[in-house]
Amino acid sequence: MAANMYRVGDYVYFENSSSNPLLIRRIEELNKTANGNVEAKVVCFYRRRDISGTLIALADKHARELEEEMENPEMADLPEKHKHQLRHRELFLSRQLESLPATHI
Q1: Residue 64, Ramachandran bin (φ over 0: left; ψ between -120 and 50: alpha; else beta)
Q2: Would 3 be classed as within a structural domain?
């Protein structure tokens, strides 16, 4: 068994299914349960594929407005293919908290 040390504030991957991508979480608390197991209270991050089309449209609208406001020449010069790749690597922070067994990290 690998002994890993995690701290509050660490970003971690959780596996909920071997057929799905790993879940990305940030540890907010680590607690020992009555039976001696460790649970992690985590904040959830989501990929574009995990959120509704309405929220994606809203996020894209605000991103475009921010790009225009900042007049960022580096983003303007990126080919569409690279912009597309960046969008699919983008993560969205939620306010959702979960308690998960630390053994799933």
Answers
A1: alpha
A2: no
Nearest CA-CA partner of 72 in 83, 81, 87: 83
User: How many domains, in total, are found in the chain?
Assistant: 1
User: pTM for the complete prediction?
Assistant: 0.73
Q: Residue 16: inside a domain, yes or no? A: yes
Q: Do 39 and 100 form a contact (C-beta atoms < 8 A)?
A: yes
CA dihedral 5, 44, 14, 50 (to 10 degrees): -160
pLDDT beneath 50: ranges in the chain: 1
Establish if 58 belongs to a structural domain. yes
What three-state secondary structure class fits 43? strand
Token digits of residue 75: 């983003």
On whether residue 4 sits in a domain, the answer given is: no
Instruction: Provide the domain limits for residue 32.
Output: 11-104
